[in-house]
Amino acid sequence: MKIAVLPGDGIGPEIINEAVAVLHAIGKRFGHSFDTQSYFFGGAAIDKFGVPFPDETLKAVQEADAVLLGAVGGPKWDAVDHSIRPETGLLAIRKKLGLYANLRPAKCYSILADASTLKRDVIDGVDLIVVRELTGGIYFGQPRGISTIDGGGERGVNTEVYTTPEIVRIAKVAFDLARKRRKKVMSVDKANVLESSALWRKVVIEVHKDYPDIALSHLYVDNCSMQLIRDPKQFDVIVTTNIFGDILSDEAAMLTGSIGMLPSASVGANQRGLFEPIHGSAPDIAGKDIANPIATILSVGMMINLNFGLKKEAEAIETAVMKVLEEGYRTGDIYSEGTVRIGTKEMGQRIAKKILEKVV
Ligand code: IPM
Ligand code: MN
To answer: Is-contact 255 232, C-beta < 8 A?
Structure first.
């Protein structure tokens, strides 16, 4: 199994190191061989090649069976031209690989509930997943750009656009996923104002006719953002557009205690998916051995499960993570009184050790 590894920027390389070590621990324990080659991506690629997504990296990800990504971006590249920002590379890789569905689970681990800023009884038991459309909407719509206007000043424009086929395929992903869960789908839009959302809702209702066993409801995005904080346990699968999914998944992350715990998968037309933590490159804590590698380690779990069908191996990763947390070890972001604060490396090593010792 060939995995293209893109460590990226900031804490990316540190957390990826631990995730790759855990992957190889799984390989050793269960007798699989994972080929993990690293490539330049994001700011690191801008420094070396002048672009965030160099041809060499494009070729590597197209030839790989799966892609494992750390994080991209940072203040160092804030001043570069918009067209070559590290984030542009991220959008390009999603588009090039046809990764139209971004799966972002938010599960609250009971033993971490006190690390959240929200009350335990509101979040303990949260288990939802945001299915975010990833290759359409305002992130890619035309026209876009900044132009000058008569009389001085400029005009910035982006376009929210969705077509029937784009909505059909993401709705199917959500309904299929709900079948393996609690059979509830909440579609989120702004159909009271936006035509693109009115179409979204109409098509989701149409696709739902093939899924009579699934309960479908709809919420406007403003209401959904409120409901997520008021009563997050009402949600199972949330399906929404690219930009609403971007925003709501960050909000959902806070229901779990820490964004440092959340993995994600981007999948699409073919078998090859991209797996990455939900959090960013956190340049302020980069290189200090304090970042939480668990989101990236759990992303490896999603990768071997969804991409390679290795279910028991993926479970071993989750259980190893749980065991280390139960023993009281915490990185700074999930630390609370009475637990033991450890660094990025030690967290990764303890998880890998649990897997190798067959404790899980
Ligand atoms: C995310 C990020 C990206 C996005 C940025 C870095 C382009 O926020 O993956 O959620 O907006 O999609
Ligand atoms: Mn985001």
So the answer is: yes
d(CA 223, CA 72): 31
Kindly list the distances between the CA atom of residue 320 and the CA atoms of 22, 68, 317, 351, 359, in Å, as whole numbers in the listed order: 10, 20, 5, 5, 8
Rounded Cα distance between 13 and 35, Å, is 17
Structural domain harbouring 1: 1-112+263-360
Ligand 1 atom showing the smallest separation from residue 264 Cα: 9
In the chain, how many domains are there?
Answer: 2
Q: Is the CB of 87 under 6 A from ligand 1?
A: yes
Closest CA to ligand 1's atom 7: 87
Q: Where are the alpha helices (DSSP H) in the chain?
A: 12-30, 43-49, 55-63, 86-96, 120-123, 164-179, 195-208, 221-230, 242-253, 294-302, 311-326, 344-356
Biggest alpha carbon distance in the chain?
Answer: 71
Statement to judge: residues 355 and 271 lie in one domain: yes
* pLDDT per position as a tens digit, 189-202: 999 999 999 999 99
pLDDT digits (tens, 9 = 90+) for 105-154: 999 999 999 888 899 999 999 999 999 999 999 999 999 999 999 999 99
The answer to whether residues 125 and 251 belong to one domain is yes
Our answer on whether the CB atom of 251 is closer than 6 Å to any ligand 1 atom is: no
Residues in CB range of 55: below 8 A, 6 or more apart = none
What CATH number is attached to the domain comprising 12?
A: 3.40.718.10
Same domain, 267 and 242: no
Task: Note whether 125 and 224 are same-domain residues.
Answer: yes
Tell me, yes or no, whether 134 and 252 share the same domain.
yes
Ligand 1, atom 5, residue with closest C-alpha: 87
Express each pLDDT in 272-291 by its tens digit: 999 999 999 999 999 999 99
Q: By the 8 A CB rule, do 98 and 40 touch?
A: no
Q: Compute how many other C-beta atoms are within 10 angstroms of the C-beta atom of residue 357.
A: 11
Return the residue whose CA atom lies nearest to atom 6 of ligand 1. 87
